[in-house]
Amino acid sequence: MKVRLKFTKTGSIRFVGHLDIMRTFQKIFRQSSIPIAYSEGFNPHQIFSIAAPLSVGVTGEGEYLDMKLMQSCNLEELIEKINLSCPRGLSIVGAVELNDKETSAMASVTAAKYIITQNKSIITPEIIYKLSQKDSLIITKKTKKGKLKEMDIKPGILNAAVIDDKVVLTLATGSVFNVKPDVVLQLLTQEAEVTYNPFDFTIHREDLYWGEEQLTSLSKPEIEAF
């Protein structure tokens, strides 16, 4: 049985990195005594994966974990058992059964929506408009081999707006094209002629998307071209 869990990551646990979150879930699954499947071989490990891991310091309310179970389970009881072992800041809020041929959330994610609180009013609708009028937005990125590479991230900014002084971004996310919100904030503060300070912003990821549909059955908000 394959199951997709939807979970939240809030509070101080947002400062815990991805590898430690993976270890935390391993411990949670052992303590909750759910029938999670293990890989074969000399060093068996629990079979689960997390889609598009959050950066350290970013909170999220639409995070996804795919797992394989050795037998069928009642999803409501599964959620309850897991939540009893979750530390403060992690909470399972939903679960759906997947068919065996379903592509993993990790491989399917194509976009993410962020709600960014400004601790100082720096980014305005005018600043976003000015940035959107540029033909390209070139950044320098370090590759896995340590080389520097220039890339245009403008096609990866699917939508950007300021609503009630909060910056709302929908960005390309995943293995094919990945744009991080802090990179966009740096470009926006540069356009505002202000030195970028990460402590001026609190970043929250509202949800993840795949293709033309959201990872859950919830309706997808309108996404306009940047």
CA-to-CA gap between the ends? Answer: 40 Å
Query: How much is the radius of gyration in Å?
Result: 19 Å
| Helix fraction by DSSP (H/I, runs of at least 4) | 10-25%
**Low-confidence region ranges:** 214-225
Class per helix and strand makeup:
alpha+beta
Q: What fraction of residues sit in β-strands?
A: 25-35%
| Biggest sheet descriptor | 9 strands, mixed
Mean pLDDT: 89
Quaternary state reads single chain
| SSE succession | EHEEHEHEHEEEEHEE
Total strands: 11
Count of helix runs: 5
Query: What overall form do the CA principal axes indicate?
Result: elongated
Structure description:
The chain is of the alpha+beta class. It has helices spanning 18-32, 75-85, 105-108, 125-132, 181-191, and strands spanning 2-9, 48-50, 59-68, 90-98, 109-118, 138-142, 148-152, 157-163, 166-172, 201-210, 213-214. A hairpin with a 5-residue loop joins strand 6 (138-142) and strand 7. It is elongated. Mean pLDDT is 89; it is low at 214-225.
Tell me briefly what this model is:
With 226 residues, the chain is an alpha+beta fold. Strands 1, 2, 3, 4, 5, 8, 9, 10 and 11 form a 9-stranded mixed β-sheet that branches. It has 5 helices and 11 strands; from the N terminus they run E-H-E-E-H-E-H-E-H-E-E-E-E-H-E-E.
What labels would you give this structure?
34% strand, 5 helices, 22% helix, 226 residues
